[in-house]
Amino acid sequence: MSKVYLTGAGPGDIELLTMKAHRVIKEADVIIYDRLANPDMLDMAKDGCEFVYVGKEDGRHTLPQDEINEVIYQNALKHDVVVRLKGGDPFVFGRGGEEGSYLAKRDIKFEIIPGITSAISVPAYAGIPVTHRGIAVSFRVVTGHESPNKKESQIPWENFKTNDTIIFLMGLHNLSKISSKLMEIGKPKDYPCAVISKGTTEEQSVVVGTLEDIVEKSKGVPTPALIVVGEVVKLREQLNWFSS
Ligand code: SAH
Hints:
This protein folds into two domains: 3-113, 3-Layer(aba) Sandwich (Cobalt-precorrin-4 Transmethylase, domain 1); 118-239, Tetrapyrrole methylase, C-terminal domain (Methyltransferase, Cobalt-precorrin-4 Transmethylase, Domain 2). The protein has helices at residues 19-27, 65-78, 96-105, 118-125, 175-184, 214-217, 236-239, and strands at residues 3-8, 30-33, 50-53, 56-57, 60-61, 81-86, 109-113, 139-143, 165-169, 192-197, 205-210, 225-229. The longest helix is centred in the N-terminal third of the chain and has 14 residues, at 65-78. The strands form three sheets. The protein has a five-stranded parallel beta sheet, sandwiched between helices. β4 (56-57) and β5 (60-61) form a beta hairpin. The radius of gyration is 19 Å and the shape is elongated. It starts with a strand and ends in a 5-residue tail after the last helix. The chain has seven helices and twelve strands. The protein is of the alpha/beta class. S-adenosyl-L-homocysteine binds at residues 11-12, 36, 58-59, 86-89, 92-94, 117-119, 122, 169-170, 196-200, 224-226.
């Protein structure tokens, strides 16, 4: 009986894979994976396991999502253990919900294996806690993919006036719009923010700045990258454990 495992691969560091994800990767007959899933994980698969790359980059698909859904479904008809390996967590901007619904409608059994999302782990590897007593009582994870100036913006910018930590995924190419918008709603020009690229890997790089200068400072930073906005960024001065 076939089963599809919609599996979170974590943010990059291979040791941030869950034990459950590790087990299904070893049992898989086929692994369908994205760019964001660390390819070293494929070395853990058994002999004869097939690999299908569906090339999802920064929220943009090389293959459209409905074709990816169909690839997963077709593999479920052929194989017993199908692992759909996705960067971070499958339900955090990972379109795992759409893949699950597609399978549910076709009576294919599936399981969700949550992963460590980049939204909190990448800041952690940069020495930035997303919450901190007395500094930030909550955090938001927001898509930066949508243009903030789009008329029908879904992002509730007005709600961002509080001191919550804001983490933008898929936002590097919109960074100048994001920082302008945050200053427009009243955040000070010197409000702290950071851009973290290839977090949790050996190629991790971190740029710390303010809403005013972050665009200039982070020019040329490679993807995948996320943006952290909030006073918690300053804690990196004491907590930067990974690159030191
Ligand atoms: N499901 C994933 C997110 C998918 S959206 C998760 O839970 O992590 C893809 C975005 O995640 C990228 O555009 C980037 O903003 C962020 N991202 C993923 N891995 C990252 C990494 N190692 N370093 C920095 N950002 C990362």
